[in-house]
Structures
1.
Amino acid sequence: MSEAFTRILLALRRTTSSGRFLPEIDGVRFLSISWVVLFHTIGQVTFKFHQHLPDSRFWQIIGAGDFGVWIFFCLSGFVLALPFAEWRTCGGKPVRLKRYYLRRLTRIEPPYLVNLTSVFVLLPLLARSHRGYVQEAKHLVASAFYLHGLLFHRTSSLNPVAWSLEIEAQFYLLAPCLALLFLLKSTPVRRLALLTAIALLGFTSGLLMFPIWRNTLVPFLPYFLAGFYVADLYCTSWNRAPRRQLRWDLVTILTAVGILIFLLPPVNTLHYVDNSFRLGKVPLAFKIFLPFLLIPFLVGAFRSRIFQRFMTLLPVTVIGGMCYTIYLYHLIIIAAITRPLFKLFKSGMALEPQLWITLALAIPAVVVLSAVLFALIEKPFMNFGAAKKTLVVRLAHLHHESVGETG
């Protein structure tokens, strides 16, 4: 990489309030957001022309890319559990709940509100049908408070992908209570409790998938708890310094294959291949075993050699660190790219060339525009506390200088 490009990437790298940076996490975020963006990009074409994806494993894998959101849930479980696990199991720094919740508010909420407000204002340009600002205002308010799914029982008309952010918000509120599990002193008992909870929640949510549950944390909690389990491993078994071994590359590959087996036909014939996922009708095995498979997959990101090296490449971690901005804006960018293309596609072009053209144009646009939006909107809020302290110090310094000059 050139020196100038490296400087740009370093300027875009995510900052953390704790000062600790785990590049493997952003590496897995890169995989997750890439899968989601690929999935939504091809979905624009198949949905528009009411077509099924080409019958090949490659397109079926991309067509299962919504599972990237489930991987995000597992990562959130790991990231939020880690400070609690360090505190309770390693004698680390105590977690202050006021700071915990304030951090979530100042880090997550401002970029989200900017996104919702921007979409709301530009809705006549973005939406195929605009019902008017008065009608959309209730969706704006409900989405801003992460209540749209609970109140309207469907995705937000302003940003459909925000459904997962509402699930994340429920988890943020509940995570400190779930983290009381780390008070259990016995490591085997604690881990057995986590594994039992994952299995039972997966089993019950699979059997009792009532519509009222669909927009709650309940059916997704096993994925968050899988992240809790890896956080326990990180703090106790690895002593916060995982040792990398080549055998974990093999484990990661086998785990990825296992995940795909559950996601693709013939095991999962009801999953999206035509953009018509029927929530709650996936096989029971999907709900029980997939959270367990994410545990060795996430472990592999830390303990493998080749996979870990890829996960920690600078471009990979930078794009992964921008995943929140990419997630918020990628649908809008993809829609803007594909609308002019649809006129070309109506001329009778075969589906597979349509998909490749769309991917070739949309993916670079998503990355570049998201990088700009990330730098302008999200990055300033990543370490809000430190920025506020710096501002106070600078203002105090300026005040001291002005007093000295007038004196």
Note: The radius of gyration is 22 Å.
2.
Amino acid sequence: MKYLHACLQETFRIHQNTSDGLPRMSPGAIVDGKYIRRGVICQISHFAAARNPRYFADPLEYRPQRWLPSDHPEYDLKYQNDDPKAFLPFNQGPRMCPGSAIAWAQTKLYLAKVLWTFDIEAVPGQDISFDRDFYIYTMWNKPQFWVKFVPVARGEDRP
């Protein structure tokens, strides 16, 4: 389950459910050498942070290994300096989603059951590129992408 969790974390890092964090009103502070006056409404772009090489090695590549514990056989030292705090799919602090633990558990259970039961294949003839065809404003704009669920052959059902 550790590798499945790492795959989900990496999926959420690259394909967040929203583009921006919750807005905050600045108390008046210096951020990265620039003064943000009191009362200015600020928010982070999760989309930009998740793709920033300052926080993640190979930021545009899908690399679940970055989320594995260092003692896992698939762990890659290349990602030891990644900053997991730049990835907060359920926010943090007092505004953190109270259902995040349930969401992780349900997502892992559902995905494990689907992948145990089916092989998932793209329907041929589709030309879709994430960078070209997906857009994010406040929410994702996604083109249709058809897949075929093929029951997994087990035991006597194998060819």
Note: Residues 2-22+37-117 form one domain.
3.
Amino acid sequence: EVLEAMRLLEENDLLEHFHMIHFHIGSQISDISPLKKALREAGNLYAELRKMGAKNLNSVNIGGGLAVEYTQHKHHQDKNYTLEEFSADVVFLLREIVKNKQEIEPDIFIESGRYISANHAVLVAPVLELFSHEYNEKSLKIKENNNPPLIDEMLDLLANINEKNAIEYLHDSFDHTESLFTLFDLGYIDLIDRSNTEVLAHLIVKKAVQLLYVKDHNDILRIQEQVQERYLLNCSFFQSLPDYWGLRQNFPVMPLNKLDEKPTRSASLWDITCDSDGEIAFDSTKPLFLHDIDIDEEEYFLAFFLVG
């Protein structure tokens, strides 16, 4: 096709207007290797076309593809190269090829729209609610007598949990909670007992997380999905983050408050729509941690970066 294009240009006296070759190998290129291969091909093509008579050919447009690093986790990077490596490879490979073929170096053009525009916008959304916000000690309706034995045991766990036994007590609370839910389904305990079970389970989780993060306890990492908190945001992912629900494109997220405090709650994010895509689920490979807050007493905002 290239040879046929050259023939047509010559036959129609248009070869002098041939100034640029252009290619585009894809968007958001995460691996540098395909780019290097394309550059070698483009460099040789540029030099050969000049030798064939396209003396006004002086430019190579490499298109887009320069990837934006969306992940906020150093251990799980989306791309395997830096901007400096990308630039050096483009210039070096094209220059060396045309130098070996004794042709002039081309002007290099690039169209990295995503890389240029991603930083221009930030989505800021307030947190409206933590789903476990109502699970506090005031919500407990402990009976004066006839509490199920497992409820009494969970009360004991909550009262005596400490840094040394936090993981053990957390496991016990998971087991007791499952057993009590089963008893409710079978009709052996009433709705008040089930409500107390939920409240106690959340209180124990909250206390355990606080204790285990005092010394960066590694055990908490193994159960972070079980102790995650759900944060309700005043926004629509469908409207404001279309690349998330459409392409499952992740964006860096961080709180704008409490920046001097370490976040301890593994978090999933929910918007205020009723759409099934209105959730950014917790991902243990790329976890999001937020602060445990009282939304009635303080504002809490989250920012989604690189959404341009």
Note: The two ends are 37 Å apart (CA to CA).
4.
Amino acid sequence: MIKIRRDFFDYFLLNYPCMEINDKVYGTVEITEPVILELLETSPLQRIKKVNQAGTQLVLTHKRVTRWDHCVGVMLLLKKYGACLEEQIAGLLHDVPHTAFSHSADFIFRQGHTQGYHEKFLRKIIFASDIPKILEKYDFNPERIVDEHNFSLLEQELPALCADRIDYSLRDMVRDSVITREQIDQIFKVLTVLDNQFVMTDQEVALMYAHKYMNQCLTSWASPMDLTTYELFGEMVRIAFAQKILVEEDLFLTDEEFLEKLRAAKNKDIQKYLDLMTPNLKIEFNETDYDFDTRGKVRYIDPPIKTKNSIKKLSELNPEFAAEIPKFIAQVKKGYRIKILSS
């Protein structure tokens, strides 16, 4: 039997730290890279532990996925498929500028159909923190890491596959119980990297994933209830800005800190919205008597497929899927005219 001296064991833990992450998409993973471990302790990463990915939880209380879950997930996915450590770091940091309640801010500033408000703050958030110092300590260039154009596995334009898109879709599908462990494993089995881009090697699995992705857009990301909560939240916060209850910097609080400022104001106009935004909120579609004419961002994927001699989009190989895409886009762009009934 081998005995390990306690002082040696303590020395090992001190000098070779690790973190075990139990992730709902990737399972149990050990993180040992010192730069990653240090970055995880920085204030921007710690803040997004308390920022919900799905926007306001006041109505949709089951949607408990944080921006931290997603950022770590993107990093784990990049690691799983052999991305360099620099790109893993970029993945870990890519969503640190998300505002409280995530894409709710897009509706405050009436950008719900593009949902890119947070992106302009990436440099500001990172360079105002300890993150650049940590990156430079490990010989990484902060300027390179904040430029997503340097990392083609991390980010791609819709409808291509990328780590960001793959992680948030699978993570939200797991949350909503609309994908099985077996289906996730099938996707990972046929997902690979060629020419520094994610591609799939099986049309049937790719079609299953693409259909689930479209469905997730219609039933979650751009669903009538999700859009209603975003619109209500946007109206409420615009009132708070107009009455000097909030300033733009408050958007970078945690969700609960942000809500507490709104509650503490004891403002009857704001309270009206807080009273509406509960799990009991009821809505209906009404083409003539409506409170909101709203639409979300069009989100779908057209996975690249590795064929015998080339890489082609799924829509180039499957005419039926190709025909679905314009109908789907039109449906999302049409949006909804929604009337609030009660809460």
Note: The domain at 20-342 is CATH 1.10.3210.10 (Hypothetical protein af1432).
